[in-house]
């Protein structure tokens, strides 16, 4: 699969989460996203960045701010095709597509435990036994979750680089073996 074939395939399968995607299909589309984000960043920097200078007696500060509208638009355009191709890529390695969302699910889970655990602890007398118990239990759960959270993107990256599972699997035929 060539670079242009991968882009064409990913945009034609915009919301297709079934089937399998080969490594070149995923990584060429990922390269396409990186290139367009760099171009969008340059456009944002050139046309949408505001520079302000503030000076006190001894210090001169220069601040550049941008709302990055072009990068936001590019991100919205490629979000679902990228999620769909990552989902299909996980299928190609024999895993559920949900594994592509593992880091995001861990972030949501960690924040939910933190918010509900600390929130529940705040309903008890401050400094009381139940307050301390819920706060410590929450931290006991959140700290290992955060450690796993730092490792999970590397694990997902490793899964995305794995070769295709030979032959057909539960998600469909091998993309390398299908006559095109």
In spatial order, strands of the major sheet run 1-2
Taken in chain order, the helices and strands follow as: HHEEHHH
Give the DSSP E fraction (strand runs of 2 or more residues): 5-15%
The overall pLDDT, averaged over residues, is 86
How many structural domains are formed by the residues?
2
* Helix-and-strand structural type: mainly alpha
Estimate the helix proportion, in percent.
55-70%
How many DSSP helices?
5
Oligomeric description of these chains: single chain
Can you count the beta strands? 2
Radius of gyration: 23 Å
3D architecture notes:
Helix 1 crosses helix 2, helix 2 runs antiparallel to helix 3 and helix 4 runs antiparallel to helix 5. 62% of the residues lie in helices and 8% in strands. With 180 residues, the protein is mainly α. The protein is flat. The mean pLDDT is 86.
Secondary-structure map:
Elements: H1 3-12, H2 23-47, E1 49-55, E2 60-66, H3 69-92, H4 102-121, H5 129-161
Antiparallel strand pairs: 1-2
Q: Characteristics of this structure?
A:
180 residues; mainly alpha; 2 domains; two-stranded antiparallel ribbon; 5 helices; 2 strands; 8% strand
């Amino acid at each position: 699969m060539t670079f242009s074939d991968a882009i064409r395939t990913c945009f034609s399968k915009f919301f297709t989460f079934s089937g399998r995607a080969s490594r070149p299909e995923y990584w060429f589309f990922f390269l396409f996203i990186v290139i367009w984000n760099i171009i969008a960043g340059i456009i944002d920097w050139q046309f949408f960045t505001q520079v302000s200078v503030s000076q006190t007696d001894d210090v001169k500060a220069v601040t550049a701010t941008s709302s990055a509208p072009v990068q936001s638009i590019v991100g919205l355009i490629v979000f679902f095709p990228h999620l769909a191709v990552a989902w299909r890529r996980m299928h190609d390695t024999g895993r559920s597509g949900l594994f592509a969302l593992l880091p995001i699910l861990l972030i949501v889970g960690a924040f939910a435990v933190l918010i509900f655990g600390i929130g529940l602890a705040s309903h008890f007398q401050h400094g009381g036994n139940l307050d301390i118990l819920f706060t410590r239990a929450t931290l006991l759960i959140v700290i290992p979750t955060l450690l796993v959270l730092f490792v999970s993107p590397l694990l997902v990256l490793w899964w995305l680089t794995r070769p295709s599972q030979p032959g057909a699997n539960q998600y469909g035929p091998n993309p390398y073996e299908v006559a095109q």
